[in-house]
Design a protein that fits this description.
The chain has 364 residues and is of the alpha/beta class. Helix content is 31%, strand content 26%.
């Protein structure tokens, strides 16, 4: 693909006009999950881009970011609907609107937007149908120079963020927001436990600190813990040098225990997180880095008069609430590593290594 065709696309939408009038089609570069025997692999392909329908827009994607879910997809072990062969990876991306359908009033040319995680979950409680519209591993994936999508499945991004920063928000940012504020009712002065220094936990650190809470974060790296303190961590615990890290967490709270937990670790960390939880606390069950916990200790929750919430990202309204908070407090997401489009497999390898702080991003 000639780069000038994408530049023309980005600034004038001329290629979409050609498509709409039945003239020659333009192609864009797009990574796909390709079938290789019984396994999946990443394949960079050129694909034709279609004109947006009446209620759709075309977005020139400038940056995308990775989540643990994406590694599970390429490994073929992501349970929710699996991964469709020849589908597009990644749920998280941000870019610029370059063409709009005739009935679109929500956005205009040049608007800076990000895709929401669930294309059809706009507000309120989810439904089975809306949860089936998660981006990535299907036609709605974001790892493509241009995506065409329903205008309702996008949000405007905060003016103070770059595309790289905004691309980190749809999954990890919204998840941390919902876990702490919507489900947890975070208040100033709350002790918040954050596990590790991946995307959700670092977002949780930044959001909690901005809200006047007292975030306590764990890591196996003293260097990462030092960075966390620079971002406002009230307390830090190295879980490698302190295997009974939950005891140190509780000590940091004066023995009362934490009010909030963003539980991303899974079966290995959930029992310890519950030991660190205070009376009346809330634990947001999010991930399974060590394998998903199959049993929630109901007795421990009842004894603490605590609550547990299963968190699977959130709605468009939740994303917009997060963006309002980020804009109010001028919070900038932490982007640790940036790769170029052609180096997407290296970005996946970096994500798999765990050697990062915050988010891994691909620039398109």
């Amino acid at each position: 693909m000639h780069r000038r065709s994408v530049r023309r696309f980005a600034f004038t939408g001329a290629a979409l006009l050609l498509l709409a009038t039945g003239s020659r089609a333009e192609t864009v570069r797009q990574w796909q999950f390709a079938q290789n025997g019984d396994a999946l692999e990443l394949a960079l392909r050129e694909v034709e881009v279609r004109a947006p329908a009446q209620h759709e827009v075309a977005v020139r994607v400038h940056a995308v970011s990775l989540n643990r879910r994406d590694l599970m997809m390429v490994a073929g072990n992501y349970g929710r609907g699996g991964t469709q062969p020849n589908s597009v990876p990644l749920s998280d991306g941000a870019g610029e609107i370059i063409a709009v359908g005739s009935a679109v009033t929500r956005f205009k040319l040049g608007d800076r937007v990000a895709g929401i995680f669930f294309e059809d979950w706009l507000d309120g409680a989810p439904t089975a149908a809306s949860l089936a519209t998660a981006r990535g591993g299907n036609a709605g994936g974001m790892l493509s120079e241009i995506v065409v999508t329903d205008a309702e499945g996008l949000v405007s991004i905060p003016a103070h963020l770059t595309y790289e920063e905004a691309a980190t928000l749809p999954c990890a940012g919204v998840t941390a927001w919902v876990g702490l504020f919507k489900r947890g009712g975070l208040a100033a002065g709350d002790f918040v436990l954050l596990e590790g220094t991946g995307g959700v936990s670092v977002f949780g650190l930044q959001l909690a600190a901005a809200a006047g809470a007292k975030p306590i974060i764990t890591s196996s790296s003293d260097a990462k813990l030092a960075r966390a303190r620079e971002l406002g961590a009230f307390g830090t615990v190295n879980y490698r040098s302190n295997p009974e890290w939950q005891r140190e967490v509780r000590t940091l709270t004066g023995g009362a225990g934490v009010d909030q937990v963003l539980e991303v670790g899974g079966q290995d960390t959930l029992p310890r997180a519950l030991e660190a939880l205070g009376y009346g606390g809330h634990i947001a069950i999010i991930g399974g880095l060590s394998g998903f916990a199959s049993d929630v200790p109901v007795g421990a929750l009842m004894g603490l008069n605590a609550t547990a919430s299963g968190i699977y990202v959130g709605s468009r309204a939740d994303f917009e609430a997060l963006n309002a908070f980020l804009s109010e407090h001028k919070i900038k997401p932490i982007v640790d590593k940036v790769f170029e489009l052609a180096d997407a497999p290296a970005a996946f390898a970096a994500m798999d290594s765990g050697d990062f702080f915050g988010k891994v991003v691909i620039r398109l």
